[in-house]
Amino acid sequence: MEESNQSETKEITVLCKVLDNFGDIGVVYRLCRSLMDIDGTLRLNLVVSGLGTFKRMADGIDPDLPFQTYRGWRIFDWDDGKTCGNYFSENPPSVILQTFQCGLPDWLDDIIYGEEFSNAGNFCRIVNIEYLTAEKWADDFHLLEGATRSANVKKHFFMPGFTKKTGGLILDKNFTECLSDENYRKSRTASLAKEIQFSESDFNILVFSYPNDFTFFFDAVERFSEKSARKIRVYVAPGAGEESFKKTESEYGKKNFSVVHLPYLSQEVWDAFLCSMDFLFIRGEDSFARAALSGIPFLWNIYQQDEEFHLVKLKAFLDILGCGKINELSWLYNRNFGLECGPEATDAWGKISECENGKDAQKKMAELLREILFNLDEIKPSFQKLAERTLALGNLSEKLLEFLPLKN
């Protein structure tokens, strides 16, 4: 492996522990591309667990290698302590981006908190890039200093978000061009469009979700398709929720709209495809952020937490969105009626719905989704304004580089 000279280069080590399918590595991959868009002289080390997941959005990754180069970046397998330990012992990191509270691998903890590191006069800045949240505490938490076990290691928290007091969202070149340039977007999806007979003239719905009962979805879209002047096509992304969608699909029988199950897409093609939709069912850290920036109406399927605490985070986002017509459907879509809401979720929402079980919820969701699809123009402005406000905050990657103490 080629060794780095930190006195002559600007080097960043990015840590990612893949926990939630595509969301975390999706953000890391996008962040690295965005950082390089801004400063092509950066040298990036990516330490990643779950390289197989990384490969699904970045086709040149070999998940079986302990070390490889990709796009000029060094890619390390988090779990190969020998390979990683040897390299980083010889090339101690000065800047670490620790994503989504992933912690430090044992071998890296031993290096930066070891006597040899401090005795050599080495110094390391850790920036913990947190999960995206619309909760108000993000404003106060952004750039807050955290505790470490050594004076030679400093740590700060960096919050993505929807306000000026946070870091905003990542605005990588590929995604912003997909938003602003129709020809660029179509060039990105040309091969896929041919394969699946995709057309932007259809009414296109993208489903990327956690496991759910999609009976409400089929009921609503079926009724919508009966009166729509446009052909309805539903595209289902691979991942955690696809099997439950297929189950409902097989039980539903004949329908007046078509369903296409997508192959795994590169992140660049995914961006272009997402930006070509009319409505989104979205999940995951990275895709949620893209949906918020797209201006396309969407339902967010948030990762479930104990005592339904995820509903608190959902409410915080919906308050920023300011589209009351989507609130009850969002709550029902994310509610687990097998659990009791904790006090925080109950306080945040109050009495948002009369539904008290899954069967009633399915019927109500079908009604609410049908109404939304028939009256989509009424809710579009809220999503478009959200996108405009969030884009105006600027690029998280630029703010991050301004904050980092990189050597020239």
| Structural Rg | 22 Å
Discrete helix count: 18
What oligomeric assembly is this protein in?
A: single chain
Shape, per Cα inertia axes:
globular
Residue fraction in strands: 15-25%
**Structural class label:** alpha/beta
Low-pLDDT residue spans: 1-8
Give the secondary structure arrangement, pairings included.
Blueprint lengths: L9 E8 L5 H16 L3 E8 L1 H7 L9 E4 L2 E5 L3 H10 L4 E5 L6 H7 L2 H5 L4 E6 L7 H5 L3 E2 L6 E6 L14 H8 L1 H15 L6 E5 L7 H13 L4 E5 L5 H11 L5 E4 L5 H8 L4 E4 L2 H10 L3 E3 L9 H12 L5 H8 L8 H7 L8 H17 L1 H17 L3 H8 L5
Parallel strand pairs: 1-2, 1-5, 2-4, 5-6, 6-8, 9-10, 9-12, 10-11, 12-13
Antiparallel strand pairs: 3-4, 7-8
Helix pairs in contact: 3-4, 7-8, 8-11, 9-16, 13-14, 13-15, 14-16
3D architecture notes:
This protein is 45% helix and 16% strand. It has 18 helices and 13 strands. The chain has helices at residues 23-38, 51-57, 81-90, 106-112, 115-119, 137-141, 173-180, 182-196, 215-227, 242-252, 267-274, 285-294, 310-321, 327-334, 343-349, 358-374, 376-392, 396-403, and strands at 10-17, 42-49, 67-70, 73-77, 95-99, 124-129, 145-146, 153-158, 203-207, 232-236, 258-261, 279-282, 298-300. Helix 9 (215-227) runs parallel beside helix 16 (358-374). The longest helix is centred in the last third of the chain and has 17 residues, at 358-374. 43% of the residues are buried. Mean pLDDT is 94; it is low at 1-8.
